[in-house]
């Protein structure tokens, strides 16, 4: 495992090793199985960043759970501009069933607050949020994920689906910008 990674014009250092991420996902999976017993949840992976979290989490859940994907954007480079763009809508019927949104990281929370509100307006009877990483110091709204893998500092991070201008998503560990 590399201690430092250089992507484009930035150097990143190891922050969270893969084994800690996997332990957190196992914990989330156990909580979801317990909470969804006897229910028919729809899981919605938020692209692009959550793809690795989604793959690892879903491999630990019953194969009878339905999965689809959606994509929203509010990031450009290392900053969120706050403007939410729906790039890929949810294309599965979601009325009268629980929905669990699967997100890679919650920064400001604005995007997920928007998506959750919209799903409730469309008739979802229970909307929950699972995130691999939560940055409490950067929250700009009153959103509380139901399932959190890890709380992290408000550093810009890459790896495990998170990117810097499209680079670094495939790293199995998390790296942060080196000081």
Gyration radius, in Å: 16 Å
Number of helices: 3
Q: Tell how many strands the DSSP assignment holds.
A: 10
Shape: globular
Could you explain the architecture of this structure?
With 179 residues, this protein is an alpha/beta fold. The strands form two sheets. Strands 5-4-3-6-7-8 form a six-stranded mixed sheet. It is globular and about 50 Å long. The model has no long low-confidence stretch (mean pLDDT 92). Helix content is 21%, strand content 37%. It contains three helices and ten strands. 31% of the residues are buried. Helix 1 (18-35) packs across helix 2 (51-58).
Summary tags:
179 residues; alpha/beta; 6-stranded mixed beta sheet; 3 helices; 21% helix
Helix and strand topology:
Blueprint: E1 4-7, E2 10-16, H1 18-35, E3 42-47, H2 51-58, E4 66-76, E5 79-88, E6 98-106, H3 110-121, E7 126-134, E8 147-151, E9 157-158, E10 174-177
Helix pairs in contact: 1-2
Describe the structure concisely.
The protein is of the alpha/beta class.
